[in-house]
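Bug: token stream looks shifted between consecutive jobs. Job 1:
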Amino acid sequence: MKPTVYIETTVVSYLTAWPSRDIIRAAQQQITHDWWHTQRAQFDLLTSELVILEASAGDPAAAKERLKILSGLQIADSGEQAEILAATLITAAAIPSGATRDALHVAIAATNGIDYLLTWNCTHLANAMLRDKIEQTCAASGFRPPVIATPEQLFSEEHHD
């Protein structure tokens, strides 16, 4: 059985966006393309209705490209358990109160037993300062937390420079 990966909105956005003029963002976009083309087959990919909702926003042509990428992915359940865990993550200050959607991404991944949450959101998700609190809160609620990683961190050794 392959490990599972929850594809969060920033990943599909970086995958489909025009190349950035910002050198760091351009590098992240390239890493995302490299991961998508060389690594994704090693995983079972999932997303959520929340990601589809977020990916639908903005420029219609860009949204269409994002939704095309997401269309082949399995949809993780985002029911009551995820909503309760998201609220708990906010209450425990594991994720800041203004980041309810970010809390829901973590909660959906955790309540579905997904191994990894793939994101470029390093403010509230792939943030070393929040990691312990996120993991503790998920575990205290009875769920194994996903490993939250950027595409750069989720490369297998044989494909990473």
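Job 2, same session, no restart:
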Amino acid sequence: MDRIDFKILGHLQNDGRISNKALADRVHLAPSTCSERVRQLHADGVVRGVHADVDPQVMGIGVEAIYFVGLIKHSREVVENFQADVSALPEVRSVFLVSGQYDFLVHVAVRDTEHLRNLALDYFTVRPEVTRIETVLIFDHWRNHELPNYSVAQ
């Protein structure tokens, strides 16, 4: 990858629907060359997908929260099973395996606080490997879609 590939990625991370012609103009390439570079970024697994940014409130999501989850045991099997099971829940947006006081941070999106409470009680605290859970509400969040470029000298 070179600096042009990183420029392409920067534009794609901020607007995955940008036309090839507009992208080529922004990175100063011929459209055919730009298209080939984008195709190669996909083929190499650098670009893993393109996603729509959906407004949670329009979808009936009234509350987002983070569950901090501690496990009783840290064997590979326990950790991987917990992560797989939790990731399959429709309310779960992200699962982070972390170091520190807790083992997992689980970002959830639910209808309301009753749904949040029931999710915790019905799917987290009942698990035998879970020793503790702490919940924090997310009031608002911002996300930077562009990753820093550490691979190529600027």
